[in-house]
Amino acid sequence: MTTVTLAPMEGVVDVYMRDLLTHLGGIDLCVSEFVRVSQNLYPASVFYQYCPELKTGGKTSAGTPVHVQIMGGEPTVMAENAAFVAELGAPGIDINFGCPAKTVNRRDAGATLLQWPDRLHNIVDQVRKAVPAEIPVSAKMRLGFSEKSLALENAQAIAAAGASKLTVHARTKLEGYRAPAHWQYLRPIRDALDIPVVANGEIWTVPDFDKCLEVSGCEHVMIGRGIIARPSLAVEIAAHQTQVEQEVAFEWARILQLVTEYHIGLKDMANETRQAGRLKQWIKLLGRTYQESPELFSHIKRLRDPGEINGILEQELRALPN
User: Which string of DSSP letters, residue by residue, matches 15-57?
Assistant: First the structure.
């Protein structure tokens, strides 16, 4: 059976979103937002900030495991932090070789490392050796930095260093998030590696899911923006795989309830501006699937006060047909 992993989208898939989406079902694994590891061994508080699930057995309240993702270019520091977060209870460690952000790449981390397969190998090797054998170490990469010629060599370097799984975002760093995702480049990687290869990129619907598996040859997927724009996507994929003939896509009324739940969860976040920003970001992404979303966004786009935003959401809920 194909597994579905919830992608580690920085500033989007936070603890509140992970909790919400895993309760809906269909998600087998989550990966935390990346922890930027640079020069020091971080205290526990940093890892708890990015992955509060470490305090609850490394799982969401729905019981879905959350692997902690770390990112950096210095193997020794990466290994030290990986070993520590394993001690804190992380059920798995993932290494980020895919972030395309300029600020990250300028600091010798993320996708910029895809220019040097030997460096990828060294980082994964040292992290793998530092982490107890029973805890999986995986990695996520893109097809390359500016072009794709090193895609297979990079993947083989990561696998040879001891990674138990590799997720491949089917675009280069320079391609960013522009469609299409080049799923065809994943097939030779999957054929060459003895570890699971997880396909990532441009899976918005069940037909996209089917096409991705067909073209890439992969058995597993990671979904990010697709499930944020269509929260029922993992549930739809699960029903599709078991050939359950029932309507599982969510109507707008259900989405509005989920948005309200997420807003309530965000109240635990100290910064009200960040609370509002994350909520607006999600509502805007929902516009890809739901025609009602842009109107809701227009009502709250200038609001920051949680109480005012809550008033708008309650008003929208009351306006729904009975």
Answer: HHHHHHHHHHS---EEEPPPEE--SSPPPHHHHHHH-GGGGGT
